[in-house]
Amino acid sequence: MLSGRPYYNQTIRKCVAVFGTIFNNIHYTKPSKAKERVPIAYGPAQKFLSKLTDGGAGTNRLSLKLPRMSFQITSIDFDSTRQLNKLNRLKYSDSPGGRNTLFQGVAYNVGMDLVIIGKDQDTALQVLEQIVPTFKPDYTVAIKDMHRPGSSMDVPIVLQSVSVDDDYEGSYEDTRVLTYTLSFIMKVNFYGEVIKSPIIKTAEAYFHTSPTPPAPSVMITDATPEAGVKITTGATDTESSFTATTTFGFISPSFRL
Length: 257
Description:
Blueprint: H1 11-22, E1 27-28, E2 36-37, E3 40-42, H2 45-54, E4 68-78, E5 89-95, E6 98-103, E7 106-118, H3 121-131, E8 138-144, E9 152-167, E10 177-190, E11 195-198, E12 202-207, E13 227-233, E14 244-248
Parallel strand pairs: 3-4
Antiparallel strand pairs: 1-2, 4-7, 5-6, 6-11, 7-10, 8-9, 9-10, 12-13, 13-14
């Protein structure tokens, strides 16, 4: 149930940051020139293509420099093949008053499209061939603090497909645009809020006389038990250091089954 208490694990934000970081150190070379880094930015490729076609035409803007790359989220889909038991709990941290836990996360595939924009085949293929061999077809990265501080989660990034679009039609004055679109999925887990569970310090068990003959349908509601056993620990005890006190013949005055 939705508790109404806000929480934000920044899962999508971290995925976007990590995905862009993977491709932000790609360079290309040309004869008799020093190598240059290929710029990358988040956003739809069409946005950069429109800047490329109208840049400098009746405006004060300059045309974009090619090659360059852009990427964006394309889908967020549930992955039933990776989903584990939703009742599993993960230990988050311990505190003096109890233990903080998380329920098992829900598995999703975050779709990402990486678009290489170039003006000639040789330059665009230089960029493409630096990326494709890394994914066989997946590349796993460890992302920190995905569901709790100090934790690390392995996130596979899978290359699904590569498509090419060569816009060679048009007049000689038009800028040729060549795009390679690489489709990826990131296999991530979304986690809910942290639940604080108090430490159990008292355990009580009570004994009753069974009815004769035994009647499974008979339930004891407010009857006083004949005897019981009670195990308690000190208020300042911890999981690794505690003293248990056992009391036999204990009968709770407020007993109610």
